[in-house]
């Protein structure tokens, strides 16, 4: 585990070149991760390899997917998602990473909604979310950090950063500043992913504390693809957001900004008949296989249309 101070990038540090392709993988819990893998494997099986992106942006479940795809082929990852892991006995199945063992997804969402309602804007929300996470950590025995890091590392086929550009998003819990890690940040890949997936308690990297990358801007953070000519956004949550639209951080606003700057953008959301697999059920690991299959079917069906963007 990396014990040095992290050196996260900020949006202004992201170098993008026209003509390049960006793949944006959004958050969405355990089922969202399975759906992302399924879509990419379906595209691959139909002859479209989007893992060759010049930039991959991963947030929360998308951060896990980005790291997994850096270490194994899509088909291998897809096959693994078709076998649901057993429910963990030391935590209710609907609890998410970094939360109290007795906290349900519904309770977690209520906490987030309360913080958002008290916030003036996105920056204020991030600060408040960080303060809440730090307070949660102060009431814990500290064992979660080690267990969560080990859990995340066990999900990654490789512990090494890929040579190609991958950005893993997070938020500094103490300052509320947005962050994004890459292979030049001096942070282990597993630590970066663990931080990006920490929706409750903060994850420590050296002396710094980080929370879920979904708090940075939205569940996708598509703004990090600015400057790339072609952008493909895979969004398990369908671009939905709990924050007010007037904050200007919704995926729709980020896509509009990308297009206004000259990028060609395609977004892919789960089909309506698969909606029950996400949201409140996102942490139900028994739903990973159907989520992956739904994504795979969707990827195969979309391959021809998306090839016009990608090739």
From TrEMBL:
One of its GO terms (biological process) is lipid metabolic process. Keywords: Lipid metabolism. It comes from the Bacteria. It comes from Aeromicrobium ginsengisoli. The keyword Lipid metabolism applies. Residues 23-218 form the PNPLA domain. This is Patatin-like phospholipase family protein. The keyword Lipid metabolism applies. It holds the Pfam family Patatin. Residues 83-107 are annotated as: Disordered.
């Amino acid at each position: 585990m990396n014990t040095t101070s992290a050196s996260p990038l900020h949006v202004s540090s992201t170098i993008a070149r026209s003509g390049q392709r960006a793949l944006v993988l959004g958050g969405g819990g355990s089922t969202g991760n399975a759906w992302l893998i399924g879509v990419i494997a379906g595209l691959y099986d139909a002859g479209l390899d989007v893992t060759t992106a010049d930039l991959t942006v991963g947030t929360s479940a998308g951060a896990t997917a980005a790291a997994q795809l850096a270490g194994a082929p899509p088909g291998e990852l897809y096959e693994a998602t078709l076998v649901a892991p057993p429910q963990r006995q030391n935590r209710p199945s609907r609890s998410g990473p970094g939360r109290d063992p007795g906290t349900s997804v519904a309770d977690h969402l209520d906490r987030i909604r309360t913080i958002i309602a008290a916030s003036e804007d996105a920056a204020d929300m991030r600060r408040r979310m960080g303060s809440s996470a730090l307070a949660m950590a102060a009431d814990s025995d500290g064992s979660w950090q080690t267990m969560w890091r080990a859990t995340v590392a066990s999900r990654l086929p490789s512990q090494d950063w890929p040579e190609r550009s991958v950005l893993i998003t997070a938020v500094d819990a103490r300052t509320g500043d947005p962050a994004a890690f890459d292979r030049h940040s001096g942070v282990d890949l597993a630590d970066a992913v663990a931080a990006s997936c920490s929706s409750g308690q903060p994850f420590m990297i050296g002396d710094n504390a980080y929370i879920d990358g979904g708090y940075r801007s939205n569940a996708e953070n598509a703004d990090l693809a600015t400057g790339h000519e072609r952008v493909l956004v895979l969004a398990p949550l369908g671009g939905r957001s709990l924050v007010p639209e007037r904050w200007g951080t919704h995926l729709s606003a980020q896509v509009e900004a990308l297009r206004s700057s000259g990028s060609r953008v395609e977004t892919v959301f789960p089909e309506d008949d698969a909606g029950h697999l996400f949201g409140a059920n996102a942490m139900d690991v028994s739903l990973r296989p159907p989520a992956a299959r739904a994504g795979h079917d969707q990827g195969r069906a979309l391959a021809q249309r998306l090839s016009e963007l990608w090739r």
